[in-house]
Specification:
This is Protein ROT1. InterPro entries: Rot1 (IPR019623). Keywords: Endoplasmic reticulum, Membrane, Signal, Transmembrane, Transmembrane helix. Belongs to the ROT1 family. The chain is mainly beta. It has one domain. 13% of the residues lie in helices and 39% in strands. Strands 1-4-5-6-7-10-11-12 form an 8-stranded antiparallel β-barrel.
């Protein structure tokens, strides 16, 4: 009897794996605007200004995605980076990107950036402590599920290529909150630099000019924006 029950469980699991779009675990469309945690990180004009390579920092860290019904996505991410060797050397990144997404029959999602994404990287300890660089990473999610939370409503679960879960995302709106669906950042002029610790970065001239101006304006206050 025990072996029979185990076989039933395995069979049910196989059915779920083959039917990622079933109503029991995808209770609504993925189209809309989603955000994790305190839901402070939201894609769109309130988060990023690609033309100026600037960000408006949210009150809390997290990640947000918007998906449109015509295959466009936008990413907003704000997170801290721990340093196990030097606990005081906290780093942080703020990321914006957009492009096209595709849902595959096996339940996976691939996000392909348009090519104008960027991120701001900061570290309390690095010599080059604040810089903007290109961010155009293709993302693969092996699977996804949307459940209905009794308190928060639709909740999106994304699982990375290795099966590890992303923080649950709560739907803020059924409409995608996005910047225009076109290239929004000039990548024509770039400078490659190497920091003292061997980190190779790509900066745009606009970002480098802004950094120099801020250093001249407040040389003793440069650094952590949050």
């Amino acid at each position: 009897m025990r072996n029979f029950l185990l076989a039933l469980v395995l069979a049910a699991s196989a059915v779920l794996a083959q039917d990622p779009y079933g109503p029991d675990h995808n209770t609504t469309s993925i189209v809309g605007t989603w955000s994790s945690g305190t839901q402070q990180v939201v894609p769109g004009a309130g988060f990023a200004n690609p033309a100026q390579e600037a960000f408006t920092y949210p009150k809390n860290t997290g990640v947000g995605y918007s998906f449109s019904d015509d295959g466009w996505y936008e990413l907003a991410r704000y997170r801290f980076l721990a340093n196990g060797s030097h606990p005081d050397c906290i780093g942080g990144t703020v990321v914006w990107a957009h492009g096209n997404y595709e849902l595959f029959d096996n339940g996976s999602i691939v996000l392909t950036p348009l090519g104008d994404g960027y991120q701001q990287v900061q570290s309390l300890c690095a010599d080059n402590s604040n810089f903007v660089q290109n961010y155009n990473e293709t993302e693969l999610f092996a699977s996804w599920r949307i459940f209905t939370d009794v308190t928060f409503g639709p909740k999106l679960h994304l699982f990375q290529f290795d099966g590890s879960p992303v923080a649950p995302l709560f739907r803020l709106s059924a409409d995608p909150n996005m910047l225009p669906k076109q290239k929004l950042r000039n990548l024509a002029q770039q400078v490659v630099t190497t920091t003292s610790d061997g980190l190779v970065t790509t900066e745009t001239l606009a970002a480098r000019k802004e950094e120099r101006e801020e250093r001249r304006a407040a040389p003793r206050q440069w650094g952590w924006p949050w």
